[in-house]
Each structure stands twice: as C-alpha cells, then as structure tokens.
Amino acid sequence: MASLRRILLATDLEPKSDRALERAVHLARRFDAELTALHVVDGTGGPYGCLPLHHVEAELQRHILAVPGGAEIRSQAVAVRGDAVEHRVAGYAGLWLPDLLVVGLHQRDRVADLFLASTVERIAIADGTPMLIVRDKPLQPYLRALVPVDFSERSRPSVDGVRMLMREGSIHLLHVVDLPGMAGRCSSPLDTAPLDTAQVAHDFRKVLGTPSGEPDQEPAVETILLTGSPGRRIVDLARDGRYDLVALGSARRSGVSRALLGSTASEVIEALPCDVLIGGTGGVRSPVPASTFGLNGESDAGEPDGHH
Amino acid sequence: MPENQMAITELFSAAEVILDAAPATKPALLDRLAAEAATRSGRPAPEILDALLAREKIGSTALGKGVALPHTELAELAVPVVLFARLQRAIDFDARDDEPVDLVFLALWPASNRKGLLAAMAEICGALRDPQSVRRLRGAKTPADAAQIVLQAVARDGEDPDIVKDPDDAPPGL
C-alpha cells in the first residue's frame, strides 16, 4: 500500500482554494507528510504577475502557517512563472515525485477562471500522480469513501489511493454493470439477479487486494453492485450516500474511467457533491525533463526539493 | 478590480506619506511604521509590529533596488492601511540584492479580505516598475508630491495591462 509522504498542493492563491490548502495541511499532519505549495504565476501578466516570485512564495508560506497546525508540518513554497498551469504543475510533480497532488475546485463564476474543472482535468491528464480535488471544508478525516471499480488493474490505483488517505471509516467498492445485453433484464438498479454473483465477489476481492497496514488502521470495506449507467449511478450514489470522498480512475486511462473522465470529465467532477480522488497511473510515470519545468531561472526555488 | 477589493488609489493620500524618516535599523523602521499604522487604524502598535516581524521571519519583504514592501494581514483590522516612508539614510533590510533600502511601502490588510492584500501588493509593485517613478519618489519635496507620484504610477500601470512584466529579470524600476 502506498504511503503518504509527499503532498504537492497546486494553488491559484484564490480564497476559494483555502479549503484545498487546509485539507493538504490536515493530511500532512495526519500522515507526517511533507507539503509543497506550488503557485504558477501567470507569465502573461496575470493578477500577480508584477510580484517577485520570492514574495509569492512567502505569501504561500504565510498561508500555510495561518492554517491550524500549519506551523507543525514540514512545508515549502514554490512559485514559478508560466502560462500553462497544467504543464508547470506536472513538470514540478515529475521532478519532486509527490504521492498526492491536491487542488481546489472553483465553481464556475465570473471571478474564478483558473482552477475550474477543465483546468483540474488538464492537470490530471498531464500528470500521473493521484490527484485530490477538494471541494468541502475539511472538518474531519475522510471517513466514508465511494470507489467505483471495473475489476481491471485500472481500478487498483483508486483503491490504493483511498487507502492511502484513510486509516478508519469505511470504503464502499462500487461496481456498475452496464452491458447492452442487460438492458431490460434488470428491472431496477438493485436487480442484479442475472449476474454471476460468485464471480463478482471474487472480482471484488481481487481488486481489493490484501491490506498491508495494521488491521486497526484499515477502514472497513463493503461492496455494492448496481446496474445501469455508471456515470449516473456513481453521481446519484455519491449524493444519496453522504460520502465525503469519491475515487475515480485515472484520467489517462480508459475503462471505467473513460465513461467518467473522457470528454465530459469536468462535468462529472462538477456533478459530484464531495471531494474527488483521481487515481494515479499506479506508479507508471513519464519522466519529465527539467526544461519542461523551466528550472533555469524560472523559479526562486532552485531545486525542487529545496526548502524555503 | 473586483468590487470587494479596495484599490490603492482609494486608500492613499499625502496623509499616508512620511518623508525623511530616520530609523537606523530594520527593527526601528518597522517599529516606526507600526506606530504610524496604529494611529491610523486604531489597532495596538505591538500587535501590528508582531505581525510585521512574523512576516519578515518568513523572508525579507525587500523588493530590491532599495525598495521594501512590509505587509501583513490583521484579524481585527477594519480597513486597509497603506503607508509610504522615505528614509533619510538607506538601511539594511536583508534584501536579496543586498541593496540598502530607502523607500518603504507598508500594506496592512484585514484578514477577512484575503485577496485584497495580494492585489494591493501587485498594484504597488506594478507602479514601482517605472524607473522614473522610483527616481521621482526619491526626489519628492513634499508628502503631496510623493502621493501624487505614487497615484500617477498606479494609474499608468493600470492603464497599460499589456506591458510584459518580468519582475525577476532586472526590471528598470525595481
């Protein structure tokens, strides 16, 4: 099971991103992880384009310290210039190799135009790190997670990602059957009689794998089997089930995630009522050349593991 | 500028200008600025000074080329405070370029208006990118002159958003 040692927070410094910052700090405290807060200054003259990068970094650090517990974690702040947020974030992630990327999600309005779902989706596609999209104020650790799975290896990063973030509570593995041949045979979402339930139970166990943590630090696992349209079922269940976290498959892959994270990824992310974890690529990551990040004079950080 | 933010032009006048201040050190300067801000804001000077020192602890607020922008947020502050001080003699401000500082802007912002401080800092930094404005501030005869120079520079910078700005690449003003 992956452990949470490095958290990269990508923030646009908007007040609406404060929840993502607070969640990142909470996770860093809970798992004794190191936090890097990254801000991409709009290189074409955005709102903070006039500020020296070291001032932006100091502001990031000040915001971290302002969060309760922020002074107790290992943290650093990095500001870089660039006009493509997703490439800068992916570039830094490719060099620093975080276990989790945290971003905030703005609702579409006339003020927020940077971290809309479309931007979040582009970051997810550009980088293979598991990405936590924070929408809710973090009042407590994640205690109730919904993890849609398609029983392929592609589902494992989602399961591993949720386990990385939870030491207690419950994880609900959801499999939604949407085969054309099922049409008309299942009279309701809960009518799974036509399915080979023994095989499904076996598949659930397989995708779940063997927990590697201490039993008392493992969330309980339950399984749910539904029929119907996966996207609609997941959103409906997330709304009705009072989940505080939904884990989706990698945006880089196909399979169950394709129905959710294909051309309509931003719509699905916006439709979910809670925080969303986009599973990573399961440890497969494309190497990123330093020039992509633009270390040569682009950032006051100097080295990606430098402390400030 | 969004409706919930206050522009520097709304906050700054000759009354916020201190010419030829004579602190000998950075702590003495911050102490003086905190005292001046206290009279304008109604907040206790020690509270303001502590917040400014906490911010400097993260990293110097010197911008380079002899200019500094100490700033912070205060929870109980009702309205923003912006001051400008010109020093009789430049002092060490732990600047990255090691240049002693003789022009200082102070920005205090209510913590409840989190976005306002960054926007104000960007406004001040943008205005100071004009080398002539910095030069004229050093030669200003009266507080009214200095205030006018600042406000004109802010206005010019706001009118020309297409200027490509790279404050990390030896800009002319800073």
Query: Biggest interface: chains and residue counts?
Result: A-B, 26 and 29 residues
Helix content of chain B: 40-55%
User: What's the CATH class of chain B, please?
Assistant: Alpha Beta
Q: In total, how many beta strands of chain B? A: 6
Query: What separation lies between the terminal Cα atoms of chain B?
Result: 24 Å
Q: Estimate what percentage of residues of chain A fall within beta strands.
A: 15-25%
Descriptive notes:
The complex is a heterodimer of chains A (308) and B (174). Chain A is of the alpha/beta class. Chain A has helices spanning 18-31, 53-66, 85-96, 117-126, 156-165, 197-208, 230-240, 256-261, 265-271, 290-293, 295-298, and strands at residues 6-10, 34-42, 74-82, 100-104, 131-134, 144-148, 170-177, 220-227, 245-248, 275-278. Chain A has 2 domains: 6-135, Rossmann fold (3-Layer(aba) Sandwich), CATH 3.40.50.620; 144-278, Rossmann fold. Chain A has a 10-stranded mixed β-sheet, sandwiched between helices. By secondary structure, chain B is α/β, with parallel strands linked by helices. Chain B has one domain: Mannitol-specific EII, Chain A (3-Layer(aba) Sandwich), CATH 3.40.930.10. Chain B contains 6 helices and 6 strands. Chain B has helices at 8-11, 26-41, 45-58, 114-127, 131-139, 143-159; strands spanning 17-21, 62-64, 67-68, 71-74, 81-91, 101-110. In chain B, helix 2 (26-41) crosses helix 3 and helix 4 packs across helix 6. The radius of gyration of chain B is 15 Å and the shape is globular. The two termini of chain B are 24 Å apart. The chains are: A alpha/beta (308), B alpha/beta (174). Chain A binds chain B through residues 13-15, 18, 44-45, 47-55, 57-59, 61-62, 65, 81, 111, 297, 300, 308, and chain B through 2, 55, 58-59, 61, 63-64, 69, 96, 114-115, 118-119, 121-123, 125-126, 129, 157, 161-169.
